[in-house]
Each structure stands twice: as C-alpha cells, then as structure tokens.
Amino acid sequence: MLRQGLAAVKSRACLPCRRWLASAASEKHGHLPSSQSPITSKLKFFKSVTEDGGQIPTYRVLDGVGKVIDGAEVPEIDQAFARKIYENMVLLPTLDTLLYNVQRQGKISFYMTAYGEEATIIGSAAALANDDEVLGQYREAGVLLWRGFGLDNIMAQCVGNEEDTSGKGRQMPVHFGSPKHHFLTISSPLATQIPQAAGVAYAISRSPRRGKNCAAVYFGEGAASEGDFHAGMLFASTIPSPTLFIARNNGFAISTPANEQYHGDGIAARGPGYGVWTVRVDGNDVLAVLGAVREARKRCIEEGRGVLVEAMTYRVGHHSTSDDSFAYRSRSEVEDKKRIDNPITRFRLFMESRGWWSSDEEEVLRARLKKDVLEAFKRAEGLPRNELKELFTDVYGGEEPWNIKEQREELAGLLKKYGDSWEPWKNELARFKRKGQDILQKTD
After folding, report:
1. Whole-structure pTM value
2. Distance CA 286, CA 294 (A)
3. Class of the CATH domain delimited by 79-381
4. Which residues form the Dehydrogenase E1 component domain (predicted)?
5. pLDDT above 60: residue 6
C-alpha cells in the first residue's frame, strides 16, 4: 500500500519531490525533508543522550590509590611536568588555609577556598596553552599560579594593597585578573563570564590567533542553571566560536545539592543538545582531567566550536567564608571524602609508584610552601593601599564626567569634616598612601 501510494503521488509531483519520494521508497520509511532525522512508525520517548538509556560515563585514568586502571592510557607527561603539577596542587590548599584563617581574624574581608578541587583546576590549567584566554568563576586562582602570577600578586589582590594589579584594591578578595597572563578579571555576578567567553572566543576566531587559541571558561554546576550558560553554549555552537566550557560539578551550589539542581544527567547531558563535543571526567583524577582537557582543547580549536567538559569532583570546603556547610551536610560525609577520594593523595601515590616522588621530598615541599605563603602574606599586609583618588579612576575615558567630579568633591568635604576628628576614619585613612591628602589637594 505504501509503495502504491508513493507511486501515485510521484506521478503528480515536481522533480525535487519525486527525488525525495524515490529515496523514501528505497528505505523503510525515509527521512524528513531537509533533515537527517529518520522516520519511524514507533512512538518512543527518551530522556537520555546515551544509546542504552544509561548515564553518561565518567573518564578516569587513576583509581583511588593512584594505580592506572585497566585499559586506561596515561597522557603524555614526564617527571618534571608531573612534579610541577603536584607542587601547584599542594600549594593551593596551603594558600587556602592561610587566607581562610586570616579572614577569620578580620585581616581580609572575604575568601573562597578550592579544597577538594585541586585536580580539576591544576589539571585543566596544565592542559591549556598559557596564552589561551581564561574566564574564571572564583576558584581558579590555581590557573594563575600555574601561569606564574605568583604569590605576591595573589596576596596583593586579597589584601587590596598598592601592588594589586587586578583592581587597585577596589574589588573583593579572590577577584583576580591579569592581561599579562590572559586571565580576564573575575566578577561577582554568577555565570556572566559564560556568554562573555563565547564572545572572547569569537574575537579570537576573527584574529590572527584563529586556529591557535581558545577561550576557556570555568563555572560550577550551580552557575549552569543560569540562563547565561545556555546563551553562551548556543552562541559558541552556532556562530561558532572556539569556547572551552569547563563545568566544575562539585556537588553543591552553595547549600543546594546537585540532585536538587537538575533532574537530568548532570551538565554533560546538555552538550549534545547544542551539537558540541562533550566529555565527563573524574575531576579528582588530575591525569584524567589533563588528558580530557587536552583533547577537548584540540577539538575546540580545530573545529572552531564550543566543547563541554564536566569535571565530577567534591567541594570539601565551605562555599565561602560566609558559609557554614555543616548546616546542610554532615561532617562525616566531608571527612570521608577527604580520606577516600583525595585528589592530591591519589596523584602523589602515582608519582611514588613511578619513582618520581618520596616522603622526604614531600616533607621539604610542604615546609617550603608554608614558609613562602606566610612570608608573602606578611609582606602584603605591611604595604599601604593605593592613593584614595584611585577610587575614581579607570571607569571613563577622555574628559572626566561631572558625576565623578561631584562624588570626589563630596568625599573631600567629608574628609575635611571628619578625617581628623573621627577615630574610625583616621584609622582607615592611615592605611592609604598619602592618607587621603591626594583627594584634598585635588579639590583645593
């Protein structure tokens, strides 16, 4: 009956239609016009991107005790490179511990740690080229450390002293930025960096850097619930632009666990919907992250389109110094994760199995890093802030607008009235270079 019907229609159809009908007749049901979607007579719903309806697998190289699992291929890595990765992984919690504690002492206003996510951050940083553009969320200080940003710059930004090249002391701690290190300044609003990254990558594709670099954007699984995530993915897949999306799925969006954030199969399930290459990787396995991000970067640059990497990890620390995570999860859960699935321990055991590391070297490294971090903080703490006039710079180009002049004059009036008589202001002004005299002289 189907063939008879097709034959009858074919006799009255135009040439393109007759060609399509001929194709349809040669197959069981054919395809939709202008589409590769095959026609089926079976009604079937689906909610998984895998053929068998199961969850997306997670790529792993090392097991929990640092042994290469059966069938896994260790990414190209030598002893010197491995030691650099490990040193940076150990440096992150050393830095976090000091800055978290000094925030509790009131010496800085805010801080966010990367406890438990060292492999995801350092492994991905090691897989990128140092001149790939990076747009971080707020746990990516390790990317800057990998690129040679240095402890002094980290401390200067968190303390807000005169050496802060990220924002001249005008931004919250952990909001780093460095044009020299191809790291765009972090901003507080959640997920805004995702569509921005697609725009940066598009600019790369229109420049001599096309085919050489990508824009890598980091975000948590909570940020992927924002509309900006979908806007960035759509942009990078359709315009297109070489954007490498790195989702840190650490289990919690502040206090909201991942199982309450989405009903589908994580963040990786969304990639195929935008037609981009996607991989899910064990974010606590630094070698798996290194290998996955290397390959993702290669595809991103060669095809000039977005690629999505979902790194499955666990946020061992509190969301920030404003959070007490034990209000929504048990201490035993956190301690179990620290003990059973520690990314630093896993990689150290791998290195020891290769003869690349020893317990003596471990002791020396930790003592040196602790000393370096403490000295860097003490130095930063002793430096003054920028001149107070910097509060009004770097916003507008050309002639200074009236509203900025008005605000500066208002501040000068308040300084004249209270600066020498009100103790809180006197103490605060003493921390600035020239103690606010630059503002008073500017308006005299």
Report:
1. 0.91
2. 12
3. alpha beta
4. 87-385
5. no
